[in-house]
């Protein structure tokens, strides 16, 4: 019984390592196709629209709500210590350093990452990718790379948008509803946020999350079983794996940034 | 255009498979399968569901690799080629019509058909558009240039797929179940198109199909795969085969496995000059 359990663990570990190897090979193909002509400009722009522009409402609304909650919770906590003038700092640093990139990553994974995996998976199922191969067109070059690249570009922009809307949400609650002075809110924010530290780490996180979500979504879709269940499984695993990866990488980036 | 029996005579093999083995896990699809497809002829691949007709087409196109054996396409051995070499050397000679068209959903019919030519980057956009319109007119879709695949019927999708398969003027066209799920009129129309393409352009056509009536009308050669055994010959020869299973296939719809007439492991003999090859 114990031997079987050890065998099972070993088998899973091997499968995990094998999967990592395949993903590394897949990402090498994406990188290779970046420098292979012709550039897929139109498809890239279409993907930026799909991933980015169509996510603006979701990201803006979510940012506003998260900022409002931060303003409310932050004020209720700070007022106990008579430090409500620090509300701008608390809302700003929370959003910029942590919540902005992480929540944007999770939201974009749910909205665009899953759609990306489902789209590529259904192209596998309906033999569209095989059709491209028969026309001597590399599907990674035509289909996968523009999607992964769009995700990489769009994630930091959406994260910035989330942060801006969050700051507005915090301002509306803190200043307009709870009576914190507007000038104090903004000057607290200005004084506490460090560009080279807080903003740079936020940017790094969102770029890494964009690369992760783009790679995981396209890989899962590309390697989906050509059945309805296969496409469904690819979509689900994209959301699960990308979300967990975002949280794990968030920890490591946060921990290593200060070293 | 009519779909009367074509007059071309089968010549030397354009596609040749030797001792090919394919298995999905424990399920062996082919074991030492050998068959050939003559240049300039229409060969119809027949067999029950799951007999490996689509797999054979995928092997020829290099979309799937055999575990063992040799596959030669226009003289080139394809089994050892990398994906890049396949794209450069073999696939430009091939066109493939997939069962459900495999048109890209995000592109119009015109863009789909133009795609192989745009990728080759040898002609101007105006020339490509003219070529695409000519091919669409050839398959009876002159008005579908700006439509999206989801706006087409099943038969129209198949014809658009055919236009895309022939637009870069391949030597060999592989057709995977071009008649499945279509009404008799559309079936006859696509059948006539294939015969016409074969006659006018001298294309080698390999058509995987269940459709016995179409095979009778259009095929120079029928390749029947039954329980891993290949029997090949002209349709009228196979219909008079000494093997009861072969005859039964032509009398039935060919939709499923036939009752075993011979002891397991026996090799069916094809009558009337049909070539039979034991594969296991």
Task: Write up this protein.
The complex is a heterodimer of chains A (259) and B (280). Chain A has helices spanning 2-34, 41-51, 56-78, 87-125, 128-134, 139-177, 182-192, 195-222, 228-257. Chain A is mainly alpha-helical. Chain A has one domain. In chain A, helix 3 runs antiparallel to helix 4, helix 4 (87-125) runs antiparallel to helix 9 (228-257) and helix 6 (139-177) packs across helix 8. The longest helix of chain B has 18 residues, at 184-201. Chain B has helices at 53-61, 83-90, 109-120, 125-138, 154-166, 184-201, 212-218, 235-239, 244-251, and strands at 13-24, 27-38, 42-47, 68-73, 76-77, 94-97, 172-176, 204-208, 221-226, 229-233, 275-277. In chain B, helix 3 (109-120) packs across helix 4 (125-138), helix 3 (109-120) runs parallel beside helix 5 and helix 4 packs across helix 5 (154-166). By secondary structure, chain B is of the alpha/beta class. Chain B contains nine helices and eleven strands. Chain B is globular. Classes of the chains: A mainly alpha (259), B alpha/beta (280). Chain A binds chain B through residues 38, 46, 123, 126-128, 130-138, and chain B through 58, 61, 63, 83, 87-88, 91-92, 94-96, 98-100, 102-106, 115-116, 119, 121, 164, 168.
